[in-house]
Amino acid sequence: MVRETSVTKEKSSTGKPGFSSKYSYIRAISCIAIIALHTVFSSLLVYQKGLTELQVMGSRIVVNNLMWAVPCFFMVSGALLLDRRREMPYKKLFTKYIGKMLLVILIFTWIYSISDMFLNGQPGFGLALLQGIYKAFTDTSWSHMWYLYTLIGIYLMLPLYKKIIQGCTEKDIWYLLAVLFIFLSLFPLLEMFGVSFGVKIPAATIYPFWFFLGYALKGQDRGRAVPAVFFSVGTLGLILFTILRWTLPMEGMEQLFAYSSPVVILQAMGLYLLIYSIPVHKKSWLHKVLVWIDRRSFGIYLVHLIFIRWGLRFFHINPYGLGVGSPLFLALFVLGVLALSGIVVFILQKIPGVNKLI
Question: For residue 9, is it within any domain?
Answer without folding.
Answer: no
